[in-house]
Design goal:
The protein is mostly helical and about 220 residues long. Helices cover about 65% and strands about 0% of the residues. The protein has nine helices and two strands; from the N terminus they run ααββααααααα. The protein starts with a helix and ends with a helix.
Length: about 220
């Protein structure tokens, strides 16, 4: 019987291989190509990562405000911007040795892999079958809606919080405790740092889960 850590490593390596295959030939051009046109939403998400790093790391300031748009005399509040904070944080260590475009592409691939892996964890909790769960993660992580979002709406590629939130709900239904309750709250915050829609989706999932338990105890 395979050790748990070996199973988890094999699952992740499998998803990384699929991510490379599905995005091919992007891995050959990480520093020079994007999956969407820079003149549209893709360019805005690249700018998100640049300005977040610029404000937080290069200037040491709070990254939700910037003077890079209208000059030092007019600070812009980015709190209502679709800022993809989680992706921006994930990008920080890569910027030390990769350029902006390569970092953006690596983070994009990592977000897809994380979404697939989160779906695997959820499916494995339900089925206890690693092969079935891996297939679920594959179908979820590279579903048409996720793949098409990778050409522009990159915040919606970060699907991992949705699967993790439902997984935690299932665990809470089995045995409620402070740890699970805190984890649920943290996951909603995580979802809000990927895309505000996903935080709302978590609340809707939670509402549906509670209603289902009341109607079908």
């Amino acid at each position: 019987m395979a050790r748990p850590w070996r199973t988890q490593a094999a699952v992740l390596l499998g998803y990384i291989a699929v991510a490379i295959a599905f995005s091919w030939p992007l891995p050959l051009h990480l520093g020079t190509a994007l999956t969407g046109g820079p003149g549209g939403d893709t360019g805005a998400y690249v700018w998100n990562q640049w300005v977040f790093y610029h404000e937080l790391i290069e200037k040491g300031s709070f990254p939700y405000f910037t003077d890079t748009l209208f000059g030092p005399d007019q600070i812009t509040d980015l709190s209502l911007q679709n800022y993809t904070t989680f992706a921006d944080l994930l990008a920080i260590p890569f910027r030390a040795f990769l350029g902006l475009i390569a970092t953006f592409n690596v983070v994009y691939l990592l977000l897809v892999v994380l979404g697939a892996y989160a779906a695997f964890l959820l499916a494995h909790h339900v089925t206890r079958d690693a092969a079935v769960a891996w297939t679920v993660g594959l179908v979820f992580g590279w579903s048409p809606i996720v793949v098409t979002r990778g050409t522009g709406h990159f915040s919606l590629v970060a699907t991992a919080p949705l699967a993790i939130f439902l997984l935690l709900l299932l665990r809470a239904g089995e045995r409620i405790g402070a740890r699970v309750a805190i984890a649920l709250g943290v996951t909603i915050a995580w979802a809000s740092m990927t895309d505000v829609y996903y935080a709302i989706f978590c609340l809707l999932i939670g509402t549906a889960f509670v209603v289902s338990r009341v109607v079908f105890p």
